[in-house]
Amino acid sequence: MSAPIIPSKSWQDWKQMLHGFWPGKPKFTEDQYPSFEGKVIIVTGGNTGVGYETVKSLAGSTKAKLYVFSRNEEKTLEAIKQIQLEVAKEYNVSNTDINFIQIDLSDLDTIKPAAEKFLSQESRLDLIIHNAGVMMPPLGSKTKQGYELQFGTNVIGPHLLQRLLDPIFIKTAKTNAPGESRIVWVSSSAHQLAPLGGFYWEDVNFEKTNAADSLIYGQSKAGAIMQARTWTRKHNTGSQIISSSLCPGFLNTDLQRYATSFEKVLYSLFFHPRRMGAYTELFAAFSPDVKDGSHSISFGTPGHARKDIIQDEACDKLWDYLTEATNPYM
């Protein structure tokens, strides 16, 4: 078994990495977001970190009906109450419609029940932001189904959720203007650390291979970019739907819960507040400058993904794997 190969970075790759430290102020902000009245949005992991800020911004600056898909009911309901208090204070908006549906993306058995609950309550879905994720847990961490935890949570779980929501999402898109319906896949600049072609298929769960935490995390974030690039091509929706990926930015968030104390100090010194990441996610969600299959970076700037992971052959290989892995849970 050969060791994973990480391609060298181009000058443009390095330039984009440096942009994460000095991104400038967001230019696409709340005053430019559409009303979205009568429309429905899902944000996974919207109870904490960047997801929390994204839900808050949506609640304060749009009239959409919002759903937070997350794992912990008690913490999420408390987060929703706090979001509503902050929205009333910061945006002077008090009639927010924020709802909770329980899901655990690391357990495929929970995903269909979550989708079915949503479908029992709604007849449309206009926007989904696949925000939830896990970063660098202890080596050897697994999902309930035995996948490497980041691969399972950041890639396989969202793939199944999207498949289950595709029918209502595509149906809704036909009633919207072209490009109004969108899927936002939250990736990371860490995709630059992924193996050649995005995935180390010789040992995709890293059960026999010693690899750096960053490479394993990077592989999962390459997956989000590949899903974004492939979704529209597989669904033949033309220009009606935009599926894109992003790196929200170099942010100091709860995502670093597994970091060492020293790393957390560095993050607090050099990384940006989590609220700024919401501007990147909502740039991908609403900006007219975002195109299907594109990749955005902090805090609402067009970026690029590593060339070897956006090739159709590499993307199709991942897509086929994910489809086979999730078929039993459909």
Automatic annotation (TrEMBL):
It holds the Pfam family adh_short. It comes from the Eukaryota. Transmembrane segments: none annotated. GO terms for molecular function: oxidoreductase activity. Keywords: NADP, Oxidoreductase. The keyword Transmembrane does not apply. Belongs to the short-chain dehydrogenases/reductases (SDR) family. This is Uncharacterized protein RDH3. It comes from Spathaspora passalidarum (strain NRRL Y-27907 / 11-Y1).
